[in-house]
Amino acid sequence: MNKLNSTLGDKSMKLKQLAVIAGVALVSCLSINNKALAQTVINPQIDSYVPQPSDIVLGTCSQIGLCFPGQEITASTSLFPFISTNDSNFNVTSLFLTIDPNEDAIWENAASNIYNNIQISPDGKRITFTDGTIPVGENLFSDAQTTPTGTEVQFSIAFDGTAISSTSIPEPASILGMLVFGTLGVGSSVKRYLKYKAQ
Q1: Which one-letter DSSP state was computed for residue 70?
Q2: 191 in helix, strand or coil?
Q3: Mean pLDDT, rounded, for 39-54
């Protein structure tokens, strides 16, 4: 009888232990699911685009502030969608978008007709667009759909690029110099002509 009671007691103890383990596992699953539900998911899209007459087009350098490779600026999903022109002196070969570590958000599905390679870091906080180019002067359509809809998330934007030939687009100072010296040259030619005519 004592042996039977001991066996029943052991089984009862094992059942209690299993119940505790199952309870902990259930709580863990609920916590993970709740976090996943609370997390904002961002689906970015970066495409080459031909602007329509009604579009507002911003300069990536003059308006947005991305003027040279490696520069990083902060933004948020509230800025999207927008159309911009690469008005820098660089062909943009790679784009990097990094979500602020304090944000409960991740990058998820991304699309682009410019970049063939899109990679998201294991933690979902950084997305890299490579294997493509946004040439100087090309227009770009940028969008980022969020779930839940309309959530504002802080992140940063940076790019790598290759400088275009310095001979193709003169620096503003060079243009000004050409204008100044060109005007002086014309002025002296006119003076010589008038002096010659007077003689």
Answers
A1: T
A2: helix
A3: 94
DSSP states of 116-136: SEEEE-TTSSEEEEES--B-T
How far is 187 from 193, CA to CA, in rounded Å?
10
The pTM of this model reads 0.65
Q: What token pair was written down for 139? A: 């227009």
The position carrying tokens 């899209």 is 45
In sequence order, which ranges of 50-171 are alpha helices (DSSP H)?
none
- Nearest Cα neighbor of 51 from 129, 138, 114 is 138
Contact 151, 105 (CB under 8 A): yes
Q: Check if the beta carbon of residue 137 is closer than 8 Å to that of residue 169.
A: no
pLDDT one-digit tens code per residue, 62-103: 998 989 999 999 999 887 899 999 999 999 999 999 999 999
**Is residue 150 helix, strand or coil?**
coil
Residues forming a β-bridge with 126:
98
Q: Among 118, 144, 120, which residue's Cα sits nearest to residue 129?
A: 118
Query: What 8-state DSSP symbol labels residue 151?
Result: -
What residues contact residue 65 under an 8 Å CB cut-off, 6+ apart? 71, 73
Look-up of token digits 């066996």: 7
Interacting residues of 76 by C-beta distance below 8 A, sequence separation 6+: 152, 153, 154, 155
Q: How crowded is residue 177: how many other Cβ atoms within 10 Å of its Cβ?
A: 12
